[in-house]
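I'd like us to work through together how a protein chain folds, taking it slowly. To get us started, please write out a protein record for me. Go ahead whenever you are ready, and we will take it from there:
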Amino acid sequence: MFFTFFLVLNLSAQNKGKVVSIKKIIFEIEQQHQVSFNYTEDNISGLEIMPPKKTFSLQQKLDYLSKNTNLSFENIGNQFINIYKKEKEFPTICGYVFSSSDKKPIENANISLLNKTQTATDVKGYFEIKKGDKNIILSAHVGYITKRIAANSQDVENCLQIVLEPEVTELHEIKANAILASGISKNKDGSLEIKPKKFGILPGLIEPDALQTMQQIPGVNSIDESVSSINVRGGTHDQNLFLWNGIRMYQTGHFFGLISVFNPNLAHTISIYKNGSSAFYGESVSSVVAISSTPETAEKNSFSAGINMINADVYAKYNVSKKSYIEISARKSITDFVETPTYKEYFNKVFQNTTITDFSDKQNVNYKSDKKFGFYDATLKFAQKIGNKDQLILDLITIKDNLEVFQSATVYDMNKSENNVLRQQNYGGNLSWKRNWNSFNTTKINVYNSAYELLANQKNSLGNQIVIQENTVNNNGINLENNHIINSKFSFNDGYQFNEIGITNLEEVTNPDFYRKVKDVLRTHALIAEGKYNDTISRIYFKAGMRINYIEKFKKYIAEPRIQFSCGINKNLNLELLGELKSQNVQQIIELQKDYFGIEKRRWIVSNNSTIPIQKSRQLSLNLFYKKGDWLLDIENFYKKVTGITTSSQGFQNQLEFVRTTGDYEIWGSEMLIQKKMNHFLTWLSYTYNHNNYHFSNYEYPSFPNNFELMHTVSWAAIYEKNNFKIALGTKWSTGRPKTPPDNSQIDNSNPVLVYKKPNSANVHIFSQVNLSSTYKWETANGIQYKLGVSILNILNRKNEISEYYRISSLTNSIEEVETFSLQRTPNLSFRISF
């Protein structure tokens, strides 16, 4: 005991005023205060400090050591003392969190560091948090965009001011699915949307052909069963705007109108507007059909190939990287190898009452004919994301139809032959750039080109004559569109569009010589502004837009307001009002019915603002949409007037065929659809009534029925879908289109001259057709899908007359009636493989 006391005194004396090891100081405290220290050698190794005063209490000594070292001391009952290394001390950061929309503080916002330290703001939006090794602060709250902030040394002294932006999520519209068929829905803006990859089945269709499908919609018809002659609410085909990935298409049909040029296995979304289209759609006075092959979400690599009794096609998509992909498709007719029953029916339908068949009709001795027909289309898409905000997309498309017919005959020891070539093609390209500046603002710019050509070349050996006709269109443009999301209910779009279109018409004849070539160019500018209000709670949707067109050549401004209003009266009943004013500067005309062999006899021309006016339309429609349970009822009443039409654009084959005057047409009517779904079974019935009249004030009959008037149209379908099996049966019935009969009382049989009654004073016979289609799909264990389809058009083989006109026969020198008929019973079979 004495020895220990002496040792402590000796140590104290020796170390007074000098640094000593912490281990010696701990030993001294243990002896003086009768305590025991617990520690690891690593924690105290190498530490030296001035020892505390001997007069300090135990706690004072521990505090002294803690202050002058990186150690902390845990005193347990003044008996045991645990020694730890101190945790690193970090400064405290304070801040306030506010909302950018109303500048008010945000309570209970979550504040966290990347080291997982968390806290929350109080009612004043205030918080405090220890600054860690990682100085990234995350601020988050429900309904706001999470914000990342790098805190620096200055932020320790001054409180942060954090402003959070509201997170605006554009709600997807709740659509009434399965309108007419699965994969077809109606949007709040009144448009119909088709998703081909989700498409079910419709009578007569085994593929989701956009232009065939739209003819099932009430108010949409094709007078001559052609996708190149689609009439929407009484309009002509050229008054519709057809867009493929932003490119205007001037050719829409293969096989001269019996097949759509748009590959049905390629499209992702097809939007169809009968009225109330967006202000960003210009250059049409009737409907808009916008086809997009860009997927809404990323898709896996895929490949598919198929064949039917008309054509074969392939499709492939390959992801080059996580941010880019390439997509190609190609389709070609198989008529080079085989003439199927489907092809024969199509051929008979297309070439009846044309110069191709007229040649054979007039010859009855040693007649020979050799024909070659084919078509193809191909597309290419390349998409590349650049960073997180930018995307580039390139789209290319090429379409071509080619017909070659050689005919010869010997009549009265004279050889006569003709070599006819008819070519129709459309090329297009679009380069699109889209940038998401932030969650509220995006910009899209696309530059496009569309080139169309129609060429006919006829060589006649008898008169050694060559006749060439050519119609070309070259359309270039640039579109700029900005989208701004103001809040969850309101958004605003603005933009600019420039369009240049050049159209050339050429006619060349030898023996006698004749040459005419006319080229017209028109440039237009458009400014667009559009606002949208969408409140899903009150069920109110309102969209209003204005398009201001300026035509350089005429120094003319045209204003085109658009409106879409939808109000949910209750959860089952919706009221919809649509209205628009639109204009169009190009149109298709027929100069002579036998131009281009009478097959594709329409040619594109540009308005001259006088004899060929700018066409203008105004349209208003009121719609009631009711859906409850499995029942759906859609009733739409509309009024539409189009001014600036020419007689040559309406395809007259009566006394107005050679009359050149301008006027308008006015149509009003109702469209109704009633639908019932029962488990796997869907049935619907549609009815359309329209009253459609021409008005030509300078003609002797200033008002008479429109050539495209079908006063009553009724369609019915029954569809069954279960698992991978689908079948559809349907019928379409309509009153006959107008015709103009001759006045028999004024016909002189010795010298016949056609004298007509009042234009369109009669109608052809009623049209009635029953169609059937069915598909079955199965998949193997390794993921390969197979799909088999069969369809029969006109099952009952009814001979439907679709047009009737009169001419004087050069053989009999008498007036003959010429009738054109729809397709006879036409089967088709398809097979497809996908993986």
